[in-house]
Fold this protein.
Amino acid sequence: MHFATLASGSSGNAILVGEENRSFLVDCGITVKKLLANLSMVNTSPLQIEGIIITHEHTDHIKGVGALARKLNIPVYATNALWEVMEDNLGDLKPEQKILVQEEDLSLAGMNIRLVPTSHDSRESYGLKVTGRKLTLGIATDSGIITEEMHRNLQGCDAYIVEANHDLQKLMHGRYPWYLKKRISSNHGHLSNVQLAEALCEWLTENTQKVVLAHLSEENNTPEIALSTVLGILRDSQARRRCAGLKLRVAPRHIPHELIVLEE
Ligand SMILES: [Zn+2]
Ligand SMILES: [Zn+2]
């Protein structure tokens, strides 16, 4: 299994997940032009993409979805509630391009995907547990808390793309207006570095190879603060010893990180 974030943060999100030469995208909150340019940076042909699965309807996740689906003639996968609120923003799609998914496992590009409800101020929002031939990838951004379902489903994955949105001190002492500080730090906002690190202490096992910290706030976090906070908490909890070979990195905002190929 391989993966890369193609863009990450409030300016636009997209994730590539693949196995052998079959792939799918999680969200596309950037323009088609940028998506195609970023795909080529990880040496992936758009012809490999078999569909786009939607986590929630916020613009930073769906901005380019309609145009990309038309351009590549691929289907879009979303729950009924998400279709209701986003359909008008996607433009014309053929009926067969609109795939309705339930909150249960589905198959896409030869991989199994389970929707894992997160807690966010959108109509609905989901993380994903992706299971390939041998390995699992846990994906979760845009959640104010670690939900029960996240805890249940995201333990012991081989790799993670997870949200480390903000440093709580930086957010609270920063220049955002009060209502925004309240929104971001609420149960339906975004995960702080500490919230995420505490969850990882429980989720990581000796099998875990990679963790990508994603959806960092430009204003209320830095890659250095996110990495040092998460590493510090993992070290204190001994979780780091459990997975000595673990590699941690931050998802860049506008470009992909190198394609991560997991060892089977
Ligand atoms: Zn977002
Ligand atoms: Zn969101």
